[in-house]
Amino acid sequence: TTDTKSSWYSPFRPIPWSSITTPNAEDEHEGKMVGIGSTGDSVEVVRGAYGAPFVQALHDSGHFVIAEHNEGRRRKRRPHRRVRPPQEAVQSNPLARDAAIRHKNMCQTLLSSLSLPAMLRCHVYVEGRGTFDPQATIYQYAGDVEVLADDCFMLGCVVSGAFSTSRGSFHGTAFVGAIRFLQSFLSNPSGNTVSVMDPTGSEGRKVALRVSVKGKAHGTVPRTALLTLML
Asked: With 90 as the cut, is the pLDDT of residue 192 above it?
């Protein structure tokens, strides 16, 4: 059967994990990388040290400039500029040519090493206002839009969610396909990589992937969310 955005999930049937653990059929890089054949309902969840290369792929997908302050330089007055809230996401800068080539090669090497359908466990939370429900679909970030395009790149799905009073935002647990996670970097290098403050406050700033999350109900407006890996 052919799945659509409005009926891809149903509360009366299990989540079709095979739909997110296979290569994106419309991805222009698919033919050059890997094609995982059908292996029934067997899906592996990447855990522990096996997930380190995927964390590295996320961290190396963008470049962040650390501001350097000249302590010896004296200023007559405090500059009048907007101070960014610490919890606000910071967009990464594009990678230099050599770094971009190395990152692309690393992603392609990881893709070629995936012999079985695999998923990555993630933490996802809404950027700004909004909520999402379990079985909501995660797509590659499509911008601040009310309707997702028909060819929007699907990454995974949400399995649980709730509002956190300590974080001040809606968050939950999700799973994304390992192969689609890597394909997203090849289709849009550095475009959706951001640096965010760890909501728990225990790890400082960390690298995240900006995504779009859309509920299964017809007419649901997609929400912008930030996704980090949980291994």
From this structure: no
**Which amino acid, one-letter code, is at 222?**
P
Name 163's bridge partners: 170
**Shortest CA distance to 94 belongs to which of 63, 58, 66, 57?**
63
Cα Rg, the chain, nearest whole Å: 19
State the pTM of this model. Answer: 0.77
Length of the chain: 231
Top-ranked range on mean pLDDT: pick from 6-20, 200-214, 215-229: 215-229
Q: How far is CA 119 from the centre of its chain?
A: 13
Count the Cβ atoms, other than its own, within 10 Å of residue 141: 25
Give CA–CA dist 38/179, Å, rounded.
14
Q: Kindly report the number of other CB atoms within 10 A of residue 33's CB atom.
A: 19
Phi then psi for 52, rounded to 5 degrees? -55, -40
